[in-house]
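Q: Structure tokens for this one, please.
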Amino acid sequence: MYSFEIIKGIEGDKMLGIMAFIGFSVAFTLLLWFSSALIDWIGEGLSKSKE
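A: Here is the predicted structure, written as tokens:
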């Protein structure tokens, strides 16, 4: 009975870890995409102001 509780706890931690990892990678991807889009936008603005 006690060992089952430990296994259940480990499974819960693993599930939480997987969810945290997915959330982190999604946030990181969005941040990366947003920053590259922002850099492109700033670059376009600078090239337009030079003309």
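A few notes: The chain has one domain: 1-45. The two ends are 75 Å apart (CA to CA).
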